[in-house]
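User: Show me an example of a complex going from sequences to C-alpha coordinates.

Assistant: Sure. Here are the input components:
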Amino acid sequence: MVEWTDFERATIQDIFSKMDYESVGHNALARCLVVYPWTQRYFGNFGNLYNAAAIMGNPKVAAHGAVVLHGLDRAVKNMDNIKATYAELSVLHSEKLHVDPDNFRLLADCLTIVVASRLGTGFTADVQAAFQKFLAVVGAALRKQYH
Amino acid sequence: MSLTAKDKAAVKAIWGKIGGKADAIGHEALARMLVVYPQTKTYFSHWSDLSPGSEEVKKHGKTVMGAITGAVDKMDDLVGGLSALSDLHAFKLRVDPGNFKILSHNILVTLAVNFPGDFTPEVHVAVDKFLAAVSSAIADKYR
Protein backbone atom coordinates (compact mmCIF):
# COMPACT_ATOMS: atom_id res chain seq x y z
CA MET A 1 0.00 0.00 0.00
CA VAL A 2 1.46 3.33 -0.99
CA GLU A 3 1.44 5.93 1.78
CA TRP A 4 0.71 9.47 0.62
CA THR A 5 1.31 12.51 2.80
CA ASP A 6 -1.26 15.29 2.82
CA PHE A 7 1.20 17.45 0.91
CA GLU A 8 1.65 14.78 -1.79
CA ARG A 9 -2.10 14.29 -2.22
CA ALA A 10 -2.78 18.01 -2.38
CA THR A 11 0.10 18.56 -4.81
CA ILE A 12 -1.06 15.87 -7.24
CA GLN A 13 -4.69 17.07 -7.16
CA ASP A 14 -3.56 20.66 -7.62
CA ILE A 15 -1.25 19.96 -10.58
CA PHE A 16 -3.83 17.90 -12.47
CA SER A 17 -6.80 20.16 -11.69
CA LYS A 18 -5.01 23.03 -13.44
CA MET A 19 -3.58 20.99 -16.28
CA ASP A 20 -4.46 21.26 -19.96
CA TYR A 21 -4.49 17.51 -20.58
CA GLU A 22 -4.50 17.81 -24.38
CA SER A 23 -1.57 20.20 -24.52
CA VAL A 24 0.54 18.52 -21.85
CA GLY A 25 -0.18 15.06 -23.25
CA HIS A 26 0.74 16.15 -26.76
CA ASN A 27 3.94 17.85 -25.67
CA ALA A 28 5.06 15.04 -23.35
CA LEU A 29 4.57 12.28 -25.92
CA ALA A 30 6.16 14.32 -28.71
CA ARG A 31 9.14 15.13 -26.48
CA CYS A 32 9.52 11.44 -25.64
CA LEU A 33 9.58 10.50 -29.34
CA VAL A 34 12.25 13.17 -30.00
CA VAL A 35 14.45 12.67 -26.95
CA TYR A 36 14.23 8.86 -26.96
CA PRO A 37 13.75 8.06 -30.66
CA TRP A 38 13.71 4.30 -30.10
CA THR A 39 10.25 4.76 -28.53
CA GLN A 40 9.01 5.39 -32.08
CA ARG A 41 9.02 1.60 -32.49
CA TYR A 42 5.53 1.50 -30.96
CA PHE A 43 4.06 3.99 -33.41
CA GLY A 44 4.79 2.52 -36.82
CA ASN A 45 1.36 3.52 -38.13
CA PHE A 46 1.57 7.17 -37.04
CA GLY A 47 2.98 8.37 -40.35
CA ASN A 48 5.60 11.11 -40.46
CA LEU A 49 7.94 11.00 -37.42
CA TYR A 50 11.09 11.91 -39.37
CA ASN A 51 12.16 14.93 -37.35
CA ALA A 52 11.18 17.00 -34.33
CA ALA A 53 8.98 19.37 -36.34
CA ALA A 54 7.13 16.47 -37.98
CA ILE A 55 6.62 14.78 -34.62
CA MET A 56 5.31 17.96 -32.98
CA GLY A 57 2.95 18.61 -35.90
CA ASN A 58 1.68 15.03 -36.18
CA PRO A 59 -2.03 14.90 -35.27
CA LYS A 60 -1.87 11.23 -34.24
CA VAL A 61 0.85 12.07 -31.71
CA ALA A 62 -1.32 14.87 -30.34
CA ALA A 63 -4.37 12.62 -30.09
CA HIS A 64 -2.48 9.78 -28.46
CA GLY A 65 -0.78 12.11 -25.99
CA ALA A 66 -4.22 13.17 -24.82
CA VAL A 67 -5.32 9.51 -24.49
CA VAL A 68 -2.32 8.77 -22.26
CA LEU A 69 -2.92 11.80 -20.03
CA HIS A 70 -6.61 10.99 -19.61
CA GLY A 71 -5.47 7.47 -18.66
CA LEU A 72 -3.29 9.03 -15.94
CA ASP A 73 -6.38 10.74 -14.63
CA ARG A 74 -7.63 7.39 -13.33
CA ALA A 75 -4.72 7.28 -10.92
CA VAL A 76 -5.27 10.90 -9.89
CA LYS A 77 -8.83 9.99 -8.91
CA ASN A 78 -7.88 6.69 -7.20
CA MET A 79 -4.62 7.44 -5.44
CA ASP A 80 -5.22 4.84 -2.75
CA ASN A 81 -5.89 2.09 -5.24
CA ILE A 82 -3.60 2.66 -8.20
CA LYS A 83 -2.49 -0.96 -8.50
CA ALA A 84 -6.05 -2.27 -8.93
CA THR A 85 -7.06 0.69 -11.08
CA TYR A 86 -4.40 -0.19 -13.67
CA ALA A 87 -4.64 -4.00 -13.62
CA GLU A 88 -6.41 -4.14 -16.99
CA LEU A 89 -4.18 -1.49 -18.57
CA SER A 90 -1.15 -3.41 -17.34
CA VAL A 91 -2.34 -6.54 -19.11
CA LEU A 92 -3.03 -4.46 -22.23
CA HIS A 93 0.48 -2.96 -22.29
CA SER A 94 2.08 -6.37 -21.73
CA GLU A 95 -0.04 -8.76 -23.79
CA LYS A 96 -1.36 -6.61 -26.59
CA LEU A 97 0.89 -3.57 -26.98
CA HIS A 98 4.13 -5.36 -25.96
CA VAL A 99 5.61 -2.18 -24.49
CA ASP A 100 8.95 -2.54 -22.68
CA PRO A 101 8.12 -1.22 -19.18
CA ASP A 102 11.34 0.82 -19.15
CA ASN A 103 9.44 3.15 -21.48
CA PHE A 104 7.09 4.17 -18.65
CA ARG A 105 10.02 5.87 -16.94
CA LEU A 106 11.09 7.60 -20.16
CA LEU A 107 7.62 9.06 -20.71
CA ALA A 108 7.40 9.95 -17.00
CA ASP A 109 10.66 11.93 -17.29
CA CYS A 110 9.33 13.83 -20.31
CA LEU A 111 6.06 14.54 -18.50
CA THR A 112 8.06 15.86 -15.54
CA ILE A 113 10.02 18.19 -17.85
CA VAL A 114 6.84 19.50 -19.54
CA VAL A 115 5.06 20.12 -16.22
CA ALA A 116 8.23 21.75 -14.83
CA SER A 117 8.37 24.16 -17.76
CA ARG A 118 4.68 25.05 -17.32
CA LEU A 119 4.83 25.60 -13.55
CA GLY A 120 8.22 27.33 -13.51
CA THR A 121 9.34 28.24 -10.00
CA GLY A 122 6.09 26.74 -8.70
CA PHE A 123 7.67 23.36 -9.50
CA THR A 124 9.67 23.34 -6.28
CA ALA A 125 11.85 20.39 -5.23
CA ASP A 126 9.07 19.14 -2.92
CA VAL A 127 6.49 19.37 -5.71
CA GLN A 128 8.92 17.58 -8.04
CA ALA A 129 9.39 14.80 -5.48
CA ALA A 130 5.61 14.32 -5.11
CA PHE A 131 5.05 14.34 -8.87
CA GLN A 132 7.87 11.88 -9.57
CA LYS A 133 6.68 9.58 -6.76
CA PHE A 134 3.18 9.59 -8.28
CA LEU A 135 4.52 8.70 -11.75
CA ALA A 136 6.75 5.98 -10.26
CA VAL A 137 3.73 4.40 -8.56
CA VAL A 138 1.79 4.53 -11.83
CA GLY A 139 4.72 2.93 -13.66
CA ALA A 140 4.98 0.16 -11.08
CA ALA A 141 1.24 -0.54 -11.36
CA LEU A 142 1.48 -0.72 -15.15
CA ARG A 143 4.39 -3.13 -14.79
CA LYS A 144 2.60 -5.35 -12.28
CA GLN A 145 0.85 -7.77 -14.66
CA TYR A 146 3.88 -8.37 -16.88
CA HIS A 147 5.18 -11.92 -16.74
CA MET B 1 25.13 7.66 -28.83
CA SER B 2 27.78 10.14 -29.93
CA LEU B 3 27.34 13.89 -30.16
CA THR B 4 26.55 15.10 -33.67
CA ALA B 5 27.54 18.55 -34.93
CA LYS B 6 23.91 19.59 -34.42
CA ASP B 7 23.98 18.40 -30.79
CA LYS B 8 27.20 20.31 -30.08
CA ALA B 9 25.77 23.48 -31.60
CA ALA B 10 22.58 23.16 -29.52
CA VAL B 11 24.59 22.62 -26.32
CA LYS B 12 26.79 25.65 -27.02
CA ALA B 13 23.71 27.75 -27.79
CA ILE B 14 21.81 26.89 -24.59
CA TRP B 15 24.97 27.35 -22.49
CA GLY B 16 25.30 30.78 -24.11
CA LYS B 17 21.74 31.53 -22.95
CA ILE B 18 22.50 30.25 -19.45
CA GLY B 19 25.46 32.62 -19.24
CA GLY B 20 26.12 33.92 -15.74
CA LYS B 21 23.18 31.96 -14.33
CA ALA B 22 25.25 28.75 -14.41
CA ASP B 23 26.05 28.96 -10.68
CA ALA B 24 22.36 29.30 -9.79
CA ILE B 25 21.44 26.44 -12.12
CA GLY B 26 24.05 24.21 -10.46
CA HIS B 27 22.77 25.18 -7.02
CA GLU B 28 19.16 24.48 -7.92
CA ALA B 29 19.92 21.15 -9.64
CA LEU B 30 21.91 19.90 -6.66
CA ALA B 31 19.24 21.08 -4.21
CA ARG B 32 16.54 19.30 -6.21
CA MET B 33 18.59 16.12 -6.30
CA LEU B 34 19.07 16.03 -2.53
CA VAL B 35 15.31 16.48 -1.95
CA VAL B 36 13.90 14.28 -4.71
CA TYR B 37 16.50 11.48 -4.41
CA PRO B 38 17.32 11.42 -0.68
CA GLN B 39 19.73 8.50 -1.08
CA THR B 40 22.17 10.93 -2.71
CA LYS B 41 22.56 12.64 0.67
CA THR B 42 24.78 9.74 1.73
CA TYR B 43 27.68 11.37 -0.13
CA PHE B 44 27.45 14.54 1.91
CA SER B 45 27.39 13.30 5.49
CA HIS B 46 30.32 15.64 6.17
CA TRP B 47 28.17 18.74 5.52
CA SER B 48 26.36 20.45 8.35
CA ASP B 49 23.37 21.57 6.28
CA LEU B 50 21.85 19.69 3.34
CA SER B 51 18.83 21.93 2.90
CA PRO B 52 18.33 23.72 -0.45
CA GLY B 53 19.31 27.11 0.98
CA SER B 54 22.55 25.99 2.56
CA GLU B 55 25.84 27.63 1.67
CA GLU B 56 27.45 24.21 1.22
CA VAL B 57 24.85 23.17 -1.35
CA LYS B 58 25.21 26.51 -3.14
CA LYS B 59 29.01 26.30 -3.24
CA HIS B 60 29.07 22.71 -4.41
CA GLY B 61 26.40 23.31 -7.06
CA LYS B 62 28.65 26.07 -8.42
CA THR B 63 31.66 23.74 -8.44
CA VAL B 64 29.88 20.95 -10.28
CA MET B 65 28.17 23.20 -12.81
CA GLY B 66 31.46 25.03 -13.38
CA ALA B 67 33.08 21.77 -14.42
CA ILE B 68 30.16 20.89 -16.70
CA THR B 69 30.33 24.36 -18.29
CA GLY B 70 34.05 23.74 -18.83
CA ALA B 71 33.17 20.49 -20.57
CA VAL B 72 31.12 22.39 -23.19
CA ASP B 73 34.45 23.49 -24.73
CA LYS B 74 35.84 19.95 -24.55
CA MET B 75 33.09 18.14 -26.45
CA ASP B 76 35.53 16.92 -29.11
CA ASP B 77 37.47 14.95 -26.48
CA LEU B 78 35.59 14.63 -23.20
CA VAL B 79 37.54 11.61 -21.95
CA GLY B 80 40.84 13.45 -22.43
CA GLY B 81 39.55 16.79 -21.22
CA LEU B 82 37.95 15.37 -18.06
CA SER B 83 40.76 12.92 -17.22
CA ALA B 84 41.77 14.60 -13.95
CA LEU B 85 38.15 14.74 -12.78
CA SER B 86 37.77 11.10 -13.68
CA ASP B 87 40.75 10.26 -11.46
CA LEU B 88 39.18 12.23 -8.64
CA HIS B 89 35.81 10.46 -8.91
CA ALA B 90 37.32 7.00 -9.42
CA PHE B 91 39.93 6.96 -6.69
CA LYS B 92 38.86 9.51 -4.12
CA LEU B 93 35.13 10.29 -4.29
CA ARG B 94 33.95 6.90 -5.59
CA VAL B 95 30.47 8.17 -6.41
CA ASP B 96 28.38 5.31 -7.80
CA PRO B 97 27.99 6.19 -11.51
CA GLY B 98 24.22 5.62 -11.31
CA ASN B 99 24.09 8.97 -9.55
CA PHE B 100 25.41 10.83 -12.60
CA LYS B 101 22.12 10.05 -14.35
CA ILE B 102 20.21 11.32 -11.34
CA LEU B 103 22.05 14.64 -11.24
CA SER B 104 21.74 14.95 -15.04
CA HIS B 105 17.96 14.53 -14.79
CA ASN B 106 17.80 17.29 -12.18
CA ILE B 107 19.89 19.59 -14.38
CA LEU B 108 17.37 19.01 -17.19
CA VAL B 109 14.43 19.78 -14.87
CA THR B 110 16.19 22.96 -13.68
CA LEU B 111 16.72 24.06 -17.29
CA ALA B 112 13.03 23.38 -18.08
CA VAL B 113 11.94 25.46 -15.07
CA ASN B 114 14.24 28.40 -15.83
CA PHE B 115 14.34 28.40 -19.65
CA PRO B 116 10.97 26.95 -20.71
CA GLY B 117 10.96 28.62 -24.11
CA ASP B 118 14.53 27.63 -24.97
CA PHE B 119 14.43 24.06 -23.66
CA THR B 120 12.76 22.61 -26.75
CA PRO B 121 12.72 18.84 -27.41
CA GLU B 122 15.72 19.22 -29.74
CA VAL B 123 17.73 21.11 -27.14
CA HIS B 124 16.59 18.58 -24.51
CA VAL B 125 17.92 15.60 -26.48
CA ALA B 126 21.24 17.37 -27.18
CA VAL B 127 21.80 18.31 -23.54
CA ASP B 128 20.74 14.83 -22.38
CA LYS B 129 23.32 13.28 -24.72
CA PHE B 130 25.97 15.78 -23.62
CA LEU B 131 25.42 15.07 -19.93
CA ALA B 132 25.50 11.32 -20.63
CA ALA B 133 28.81 11.75 -22.47
CA VAL B 134 30.21 13.83 -19.59
CA SER B 135 29.05 11.15 -17.12
CA SER B 136 30.73 8.46 -19.17
CA ALA B 137 33.98 10.46 -19.30
CA ILE B 138 33.89 11.00 -15.52
CA ALA B 139 33.38 7.26 -14.99
CA ASP B 140 36.16 6.42 -17.46
CA LYS B 141 38.79 5.46 -14.88
CA TYR B 142 36.45 3.57 -12.53
CA ARG B 143 37.66 0.14 -13.59
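The lines above are the inputs; the final block is the predicted structure for all two components together. Chain B touches chain A at residues 31-32, 34-36, 52, 105, 108-109, 112-114, 116, 119-122, 124-125, 128 (CB under 8 Å).
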